[in-house]
User: What shape does this take?
Amino acid sequence: MSVYFRGLEYESMIFLSEGNFGRCVECGRLILKEGNNSKYCLDCSKKKQSERHIRYNGKHV
Assistant: This one.
C-alpha cells in the first residue's frame, strides 16, 4: 500500500503549484528537482551509482 502513496505528496504539491518537479528518467516517478541535474529518484540514483561503480572498477571489488 505504501508503494501506491509514494508520490502522493508531490502530486498534491503540483496541484497547488508549489515547487519545481520532474519525472525520473528510469521509472517515471515524480521527483522534486533540487537542481538542474536532478534526473533520477533516490532508488534509481542508487542503482545507477552502483552500476557505474561496477563498470568502472570491474566486478571483483
Remarks:
- The longest strand covers residues 21-23.
